[in-house]
Design brief:
Number of helices: 4
Number of strands: 4
Distance between the termini: 38 Å
Strand order of the largest sheet: 2-3-1-4
Strand content: 25-35%
Oligomer: single chain
Structural class: alpha+beta
Order of helices and strands: EHHEEHEH
Length: about 90
């Protein structure tokens, strides 16, 4: 099987998110707002998780919907920074 061309690969964005119980609340907020089909399109991945913060990776086209789902969710989840690379996010 041939490897994918760079133009066919999914582009990711990395979000630095602050809040409480982020492991459960991030998934729950996206599921409530977008649904299961949207959750699969987001391609959510947890890169690093701390006590009150988390670094997640999502699909580039879904950044606005994910931010909207955090705004609508009852618990406080705030996006501090969005970056195309992990190195840019850590600065």
């Amino acid at each position: 099987m041939k490897p994918l061309k760079p133009s066919a690969k999914e582009n990711k964005r990395y979000l630095f998110v602050k809040g409480r119980n982020l492991d459960k609340n991030i998934e729950k907020s996206i599921l409530e707002f977008i649904g299961t089909w949207g959750m699969s399109k987001v391609g959510l991945g947890f890169i690093k998780t701390g006590e009150n913060y988390s670094i997640i990776s999502i699909n580039r086209e879904m950044v606005d919907l994910v931010r909207a789902s955090f705004c609508v969710f009852s618990k406080e989840i705030s996006v501090e920074k969005v970056s195309g690379t992990l190195k840019g996010l850590k600065k």
